[in-house]
Fold each of these.
Amino acid sequence: MTAALLLGAVGRAAAVPLDPDADGARRLLLDELAKPEYEAARPNALDLAAQAVGDWIAGLLGGAGGGLADLAPVVIGVLVLAVVVVAFLVFGAPRRDRRRAAARGDGLFGSDDRRSAEELR
């Protein structure tokens, strides 16, 4: 019996269109926006700071379009910098290696090697 009453109430609510006046619409809007799920979706300080930095970078690049093509130079620059850092970490500083080779007595292409061809075979 309660299911029939519920279905009848839902049917009547769907049949009547909501057409409030200006004050009623404003009140309904304020009541809706006062719900906690809208407050939870409000950006926090970190979101606002990230948005400000993004806007600043877009302004520097002159990105009036706001598309991904405007960020291409930044992405390419970051990738090049990452490659340089990784190469430095993997291979080390060239001068430091040169000093180390000089300390070991290694010449360029083994020019300090005094072994004969017979000894190398």
Amino acid sequence: MATTSELLAKAVGEISVLNKTYEQEVTKWQTERAQMQTLLQQSKQTFNDYISTARREVAAINLLKNAQAKDITGDGKLDLPFQPYTAHVDIEATVYDREDEAVPEVISNIKTSMLFNPIKLIITKKEGIDRETLLIPYNPVFGKISVGFVALYSPTSGINIHGVGELEENRLYQKVVCNQSVSRNHNIDLPKYELTQDTCELWMVGPWISAGYVEKDSIPLFIDGAIYHDIG
């Protein structure tokens, strides 16, 4: 009959073998997990490369007329690319030549392959009305759309733009995408917003509308004459 010492030694040996087997299995699992993560990363990169190629082949294109705000009205003034919606707020909208001294330096210093004239909006709450509203009134479309701006800037803040959030005072926002469309029937509203103060000064450059989904930090191609411009 085995002694207590012999039984204890046997048990210790068996535990040692079990520990070694456990460590081997853990190492094997960690190796397989690392291999799987590498495979997933490679697959993700391959998919992203495919999507990037597809986007280059079928690029998003701006559909908003006069997005550069260069057209001239009958009385010789620069024309707005849209008619602001003023049911809930009062809006004073002015298009400036990009070389005008009234244009903030942070706006005039924006570098793109196309020239855009900036638009200044003074938006004021109407008395007794405090709610979200639209920049452009309803324009029904069938299909998904994306809307955005080449740049946004507010020296005063006081505005929360859906898809962007509340604008920080004196911060320049570039390649702004507000993906609004979540259903097949939608309105081009360019975009929803709400004032967090009674009055806000907002500068915008290159408002755009594109069919389909435009990813964040991107800009669709802009048409000038018969040429498509990637403004970068």
Amino acid sequence: MGNCLRSGGKPPSPPATRESGGGGGREEESLASYRGWPSAGSGGRVLDAPRLRVFTLAELRAVTRGFKPEMVLGEGGFGRVYKGWVDDRTLHPAKSSAGVVVAVKRLNAESVQGLQEWQSEVNFLGRLQHPNLVRLLGYCGDGEDRDLLLVYEFMPKGSLENHLFRRGGSFEPLSWATRLKIAAGAARGLAFLHSPETQIIYRDFKASNILLDHDFAPKLSDFGLAKSGPAAGRSHVTTRVMGSYGYAAPEYVATGHLYVKSDVYGFGVVLLELLTGLRAHDPNRPTHQANLVEWARPYIAGGRKLTGLMDQRLAGQYPPKAALRAARLAHRCLCGDPKARPSMDDVVAKLEEIDARGSRDSLPPRPRPVPAAAQRSPYR
């Protein structure tokens, strides 16, 4: 399944409270103001309307150095993401030596999917403020080529997907403490989306949508598939299933019914990826292991030893009891019955408990280096 989105109309009227371009008297907002956003321990807030800077296409050309190929950070189905620099206070284009780094996503306005993603990002991320949601700083929707652009804070560590599944280079194996930190932070972001004052179904929770800052604090990104409501145990009914294969809840795939608890299933899949270091679906694995959830069930349900499940790159350096509790939590999140899955508030509480109790659990001792003399074969 890809990011298939319903059709959209014209871009929405600019919802921002600030202007760009020349002239005085405009309201100025800065990146510095975002540092006053909710702290990591708070629950975030919802604004009545988006508060975003409206950029011109000329400004974003300057920000990204003309959208040069060497500025490309990544590329998706609906466009590219470029690296750029803006002034810390005015968000105007700046030199790399004087500005702060931002990420500029350039979407294809001719595609229905690109337009819908642009609208969703502005309408959702423009109003939501939470330490575990990526910050949308502004947008542009009036280019001569009908380009649609979005400007975000830059996340220097990239995506969780890269750190879990890419080998070599600058990607070192994530420690147990870092994995638990990422799981807890992502859970807080999802719990905020599900809160009564927000009531948003994220619908595309996966490792590639979890971005990491310089300290590996996670933030949810890409709200192109997000939907408002419904509350409690009610569901959306869609005629076209959207999301990513391996992460979508079984009831959604089978019936098109989308619940808040469908997001919880996706979280369970990512938690399983954090434990195993394996992708949710990998056709290159043996047939019985291609689907991570099905292969892992005997382990997380308690039928097999957990050591056979854990990421080998952890080299046994994790508290066994904490890992067992995390596996049991993943099992609950992956329950076939949506009603039996925990709420994300419950998931956050459980992960915080695992972290607190796990800090008291001792790590297995690291194996001692074998003396060189003892390593020699007696047959040489």
Amino acid sequence: MVVALKRRPTPDAEAFEAVKAGLDQLPEGVKMLLNSGRFNDRPFKASSRQFVENARRCVDLVLEKLRGTKKIDHYEFGRILAGDSVEDNMRTLAALKAEGKFDHIGLSDCRAETVRRANAKRLFTYYPDQSEKQLRIRSVTIYVASGLNTVFIPSLTVKDNTITAVLEEVAKKNNISQAQARIAWVASRDPHVIPLPGSSHKIRTLENLAAGDIVLPAEDIAKIDKVVLAHSDENARRIDDPHSNDA
């Protein structure tokens, strides 16, 4: 995501080096999840019109670029599409899955109730962003993008930089980078919450991986919790509108 969203996108060679750095660090038998999407590319052309045709077009384009060297393990819409029910979204993806286009279906940026409705069809397997405590009921694994996303996104800053200041304080105290403090905080949320940090170069990839072994002291977690809750509305990320997803 970070690779394409920059004003000057990361060169392919540098991006591939960042990915390889992560692969080289994997223990034996461990697989890496690469999260990518055409909607992150430039120019941005997000649209919910004719989403069935667009979904098929995007999937076929990815498969064309992979040239048979790798399959799509998992596919999802970046958002639950407004104006169409959760069930309609899932039926569209299920049809593509049935054709062998990909192996698994996921959900992104939606409410716990949306997850429950999708799960009623026993279709999806992966859920990034916007974690909610209720998801523990079904032991759903939540991948949190960009380092911090439960109530705020690390790439965003509040007007008075209060969150950034606290993160910097915690980072200095523990002799880690601010990015590592963010990742460690996300990991502290729940065993089913997994940080999914972005990276555009090798050094950051290795730094992010090292954060997986960091456990923040309880007092530091509480300090971050307090300031995040106080500013959560300023950094709220749009999730699916409950009024636009009625069956």
